[in-house]
Amino acid sequence: MENDTNNTVLVDVEPRVRAVPNDVTDQSQTQRENVESRRMFEDLFDNSDAAIIDFDFSVLFQLVRELKRNGVVNLRSYMRDRTSVRASS
Prior knowledge:
Elements: E1 2-3, E2 9-10, H1 25-46, H2 58-69, H3 75-80, H4 83-88
Antiparallel strand pairs: 1-2
């Protein structure tokens, strides 16, 4: 809005459009590759004659890392000497 010398208010009614270009080419390509990869592994899983088993060993790896930090060098000897550790697992 502007005031002219006669105290008349002028209103700017011209529409304004603001655009921000965003190149999504890489994002789209990555998404297509992820979809294709997922389809490939689903097909492999669904049509496999072999048994597929998924184990989560993350807790075991954490325990082994903790034992190493505590100075355990030989895990076999450590476990052999501690039947209570084996029983609680």
